[in-house]
Here is the input.
Amino acid sequence: MPDKKSHIPWAKPDFWGNEIQYVSEALASTWISGGAYLDKLEKQFSETFQKKYALAVSNGTTAIHLAYLGLGLKPGDEIIVPGFAFMAAANIALHMGLKPVFAEVDKDTWCLSARELPKYISSKTKAIVPIHTYGNVCEMDAIMKVADAHKIPVIEDCAESLFSKYKGKYSGTFGKINTFSFQATKTITTGEGGLVVTDSDELNEKMMLYRSHGMRRKDKFYWHELPGHNFRLTNMQAALGVAQLEKIDFILSERKRVYEEYKKHIANQEDVVLQKIEKDVDPVIWAVALKLNSKTFPQGRDKVIEQLRETGIETRPGFYASSLLKIYQQHSLPVCEDISKNVISLPSFPSLKNDDIVFICEQLLKLKNR
Ligand SMILES: Cc1ncc(COP(=O)(O)O)c(C=O)c1O
Here is the structure.
């Protein structure tokens, strides 16, 4: 095998089917802002996730924002989020004057730990936001048990776990409101985009208003019932999503192939440990991530990223733990910090070839003790 390949990106959106045709049709229809593709995308999500309502929005961050607004969260309220994850849920909390309280994650699954959860709950806790990191799914039974005992609503952030399952049910079917992202690297993409699902009439009503200026256009133009945002997805973007969903079985099988191929070449060993997937979880891995043993990789994770880049391989570090980021100024979370410093995620997109995966694994393992 050569030591240098042409560039292997960390992620790449793939268009497998009718994307160009449907986007052109959306344009030709002149329904740009609302339209038939939006209706179709929402219908497909509400049917697939068996939720009464699905609302397409402009991205996964506005999806979370909408969920907080739907729940009526107010300045001073607390939400619990994992201290190791992509921080959109925490950032929107800060924007709304809420306090994100960061919780420890499980040292092996890297997801919110139900065992740890009770110690972060206070009388001000108004939502728990499990984040299904890298496509793994949090231990939802145990999390729901804690949340239900305290009557706290759960918002699942499924940005990274579209179509991953826990005990045979999709992530995004457990919480009161659940959010998705269709950003370019995600399992399906609409360019930028997102969506929320819920069974609640009341929450749907409120989120629909907040999504679009607080107006109900059909009844009364320009009548603002509440100070809404513009969080709408366009019909053209929804057209992309509908085309991607037509190919979803293929996309998922390719993602599974990529993950299985990595597992073949990086079987769990002491030096590199893959994110643990519990037996209850059937994951659609969004990003194959592993933890480097700091003794075997004395150069450190960031140097490994640099060394891989020299061979044409683009990787990403683990998310920075909340306690390492100045903007949050919170308690230290040793497990999150350890994961954060040693995790690396590898190229994981569905059209990644098996021989590229072999090359990536060889190059990574060559960096031991270097
Ligand atoms: C877990 C998680 N939540 C939320 C988001 C935000 O989604 P978006 O980029 O679509 O706003 C992301 C990343 O994109 C994410 O990984």
